[in-house]
Amino acid sequence: MHSIWQEQIDFPVYPILKRDKKTDILYVGATLEHAVEAHFRKEAGNAVMIIEEKSIADMSELGGIGILRATNMNEFKALCILRNYIIKHHIPCDLEIISETSIQVHPIKLFLFMTKDVEVYEQTKITARQGKRLDIESAYIDAGQVIEDDRPREKRYIHIFSEADFPEITKPDILEIRKYKNNYLVLSYQRELEGSQRYWEI
Known about the structure:
With about 200 residues, the protein is an alpha+beta fold. It has three domains: about 15-60 and about 110-150, FAD/NAD(P)-binding domain, CATH 3.50.50; about 65-105, no CATH class; about 155-200, no CATH class. It has helices at about 30-45, 75-90, 105-115, and strands at about 20-30, 50, 65-70, 95-100, 100-105, 120, 130, 135, 140-150, 155-160, 175-180, 185-190, 200. A six-stranded mixed β-sheet has the order 6-2-1-9-8-7, covered by helices on one side. The radius of gyration is 18 Å and the shape is globular. This is GIY-YIG domain-containing protein.
């Protein structure tokens, strides 16, 4: 099921990589975090690429609930840089500042803005590796640095509740709540929550 973020969004046509490429930094996985980092690394003069094995427009997990939070000093510095960059460049991503350490964004709008000058390939899967040479069946990628999000993740679900019918929900059913337009978005490990209009998996 598509996420609320994918509604009325026109994705670019991402190519499938079919020829050999070289890059300074390769990001494996079309995530919001990779998009932001790739954008800044490209601005710093690096050659960067993002590859994703799925069709990006169909990724309901892209962006999650759209809350970016800093939990340590390095993350706080990175969040401040991003927040100020969004404001300075008037990035249309529905920015809301929750606190010094937390912001809300429309994650796909931010992803699309941050990747518009970055090489992004979809339906491109690594099948073998020889050091920093990656085999994608139809071609090879030679990367100076490979960055992957290989953290194990439990299945989580984002539920949509209307503002008028939003029930009282308490932990441990919920991990995060945010208001978006006339809805509440609730992040939970639970696939079923009473009163939920619909959900998508991340």
